[in-house]
Amino acid sequence: MSAPLAHLALHLPDEHATDALAGQLAPLVNGAHGPAGGRIHLRGDLGAGKTAFTRALLRASGIKGRIKSPTYALLESYKVSNLYFYHFDFYRLSDTREWLDAGFRDLLRDDAVVLIEWPERAGAFLPVPDLEIALLHTEQGRDASLTAYTARGQTWLNAIVPPIAAHSRHVPPPADA
Ligand SMILES: Nc1ncnc2c1ncn2[C@@H]1O[C@H](COP(=O)(O)OP(=O)(O)O)[C@@H](O)[C@H]1O
Ligand SMILES: [Mg+2]
């Protein structure tokens, strides 16, 4: 993978914080700071919050109705106005060529919003994402590690305003720190 351009580490104390992070990214992928579209890779163990984050982003983008996890189908697609959203989950890929054979590569366009869970299972043919979000279980909540690999991803990172929580308090460091 090409070299990361920028990085941001956040703590997400509860699922509302995950929703809030998705709520901050939604306008960005919908074109608030440039053309709409972009690719986000979501890494993390089962239950880390990849689907929860994606659902919240799709909801905040105006997608109504049921948002299914693509665990079995590999792909769920949506369209709002003229913008396409592709939600992949590669957990069940049996080999790294399966998604290529399914024609999924044609969907990884810069003018579509592409969210990919378990990108590591797709192997080396997957293009570099604009943003990778790695979610890690902590004692309470999750740590989120956001890495931008493109100028677009870097623009998004710069627009994110921590702390990510509806009711979290920012505790300033001690004066003598
Ligand atoms: N920041 C968070 N802190 C605690 N729980 C969270 C947080 N974000 C999401 N969750 C919860 O963790 C679970 C994540 O499940 P899911 O999104 O299906 O995981 P994955 O797709 O990564 O396997 C959900 O029950 C969700 O409510
Ligand atoms: Mg999932």
From TrEMBL:
Gene3D superfamilies: P-loop containing nucleotide triphosphate hydrolases. Keywords: ATP-binding, Cytoplasm, Magnesium, Metal-binding, Nucleotide-binding, Transferase, tRNA processing. One of its GO terms (cellular component) is cytoplasm. InterPro entries: P-loop_NTPase, T6A_TsaE. One of its GO terms (molecular function) is metal ion binding. GO terms for biological process: tRNA threonylcarbamoyladenosine modification. It is found in: Cytoplasm. Belongs to the TsaE family. PANTHER family: TRNA THREONYLCARBAMOYLADENOSINE BIOSYNTHESIS PROTEIN TSAE (PTHR33540:SF2). NCBIfam families: T6A_YjeE (TIGR00150). This is tRNA threonylcarbamoyladenosine biosynthesis protein TsaE. It comes from Bordetella genomosp. 12.
